[in-house]
Amino acid sequence: MEIIQDKEAVRGFVQQVLGCSCPEEVFDRIEYHRVRIGGETAAAMTVGGRLLLYLLPVEDASLLDSLLPRLVETGRLERDRRGLNRFRAVLVTAEKERILAAVASMTAATVGLDEKIHLHVVSRQEAPCKGENR
Fold first, then answer.
1. Separation CA 75–CA 71 (nearest Å)
2. How far apart are CA 17 and CA 39, in angstroms?
């Protein structure tokens, strides 16, 4: 999966789809990279030196038991190491309702009491991405 590196696409996704109230000036600096999560690759971006996002394609809900805790822990560690404010883990899928249902029971245990971590499930159409690079 590759993030479309377009400021307006990223701003729309972050503010409208994820509901983040980031100030406009943070979108002047967006950095992109990739992160290995188990055997998968997440597309990642840092917005304004404040917000870290990992976008991970997921179609098989049975993988979430092992994948989701790794995703959250890897993001938490990067967020803390880099001194960022928030981490948003975004699962991108063609099966949004099915993945949402699978994630619902896992969220509290995975995210814990860290109020600066948010977990989202979005459809492929909602994500500012193209293709799949796994």
1. 6
2. 27
How is the chain split into domains, by residue range?
A: 2-130
| Sign of the dihedral defined by the CA atoms of residues 99, 104, 105, 107, in that order | positive
For the chain, report the end-to-end CA distance as a whole number of angstroms. 7
SS3 11: helix
Instruction: Give the model confidence (pLDDT) of 67-119 as tens digits.
Output: 999 999 999 999 999 999 999 999 999 999 999 988 887 765 666 678 899 99
Which residues, in sequence order, are CB contacts of 91 under 8 Å at separation 6+?
A: 56, 57, 58, 68, 99, 103, 119, 120, 121, 122
Q: pTM for the whole thing? A: 0.90
Torsion of CA 62, 37, 71, 101, to 10 degrees: -20
Burial of residue 12 (CB within 10 Å: 0-12, 13-18, 19+) is middle
